[in-house]
């Protein structure tokens, strides 16, 4: 079973007003999704974001954004550089691959020698 984690790739403190409590301390965070499996680790191209107030701890959804928040979000969205999508194989994958190849090589050798 694959596990999914969101890794923080960019954090920014912005000074726009919170639509809920009108405080000027907001935090904009960009996440990138990583998938972990016993055989490989995959970095996906899926980037998500979250704006949270530091005082009332409420998440500010795009419906409640003001034009100032939209402008600041667009600016930071251009600055975000996610990691390249990649697949990294684990040690378990390579051990199983070597065992499989050695079994196939042994069977082919025994067949060519006439033992099988």
What does this structure look like?
The chain is of the alpha+beta class. Helices cover 31% and strands 35% of the residues. The protein is built from two helices and four strands, in the order E-E-E-H-E-H. It has helices at 67-79, 91-113, and strands at residues 3-14, 26-36, 40-53, 86-89. It has a four-stranded antiparallel sheet with strand order 1-2-3-4. A hairpin with a 3-residue loop joins strand 2 and strand 3 (40-53). It is rod-shaped and about 85 Å long. The two termini are 38 Å apart. 9% of the residues are buried. The model has no long low-confidence stretch (mean pLDDT 92).
Q: Note poorly predicted spans.
A: none
Report the portion of residues in β strands. Answer: 35-45%
Total beta strand runs: 4
Radius of gyration using CA atoms only: 24 Å
N→C terminal distance = 38 Å
Question: What's the order of the H and E elements?
Answer: EEEHEH
Q: What is the number of helices?
A: 2
Q: Roughly how much helix do the residues carry, as a percent range?
A: 25-40%
Topology:
Elements lengths: L2 E12 L11 E11 L3 E14 L13 H13 L6 E4 L1 H23 L3
Antiparallel strand pairs: 1-2, 2-3, 3-4
Overview features:
single chain; alpha+beta; four-stranded antiparallel β-sheet; rod-shaped
């Amino acid at each position: 079973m694959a596990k999914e984690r969101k890794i923080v790739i960019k954090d920014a403190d912005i000074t726009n007003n919170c639509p809920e409590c009108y405080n000027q301390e907001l935090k904009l965070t960009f996440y990138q999704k990583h998938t972990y499996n016993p055989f490989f680790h995959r970095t996906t191209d899926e980037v998500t974001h979250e704006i949270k107030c530091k005082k009332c701890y409420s998440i500010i959804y795009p419906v409640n954004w003001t034009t100032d928040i939209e402008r600041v979000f667009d600016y930071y969205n251009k600055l975000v550089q996610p990691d390249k999508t990649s697949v990294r194989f684990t040690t378990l994958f390579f051990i199983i691959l070597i065992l499989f190849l050695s079994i196939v090589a042994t069977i082919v050798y025994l067949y060519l020698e006439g033992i099988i």
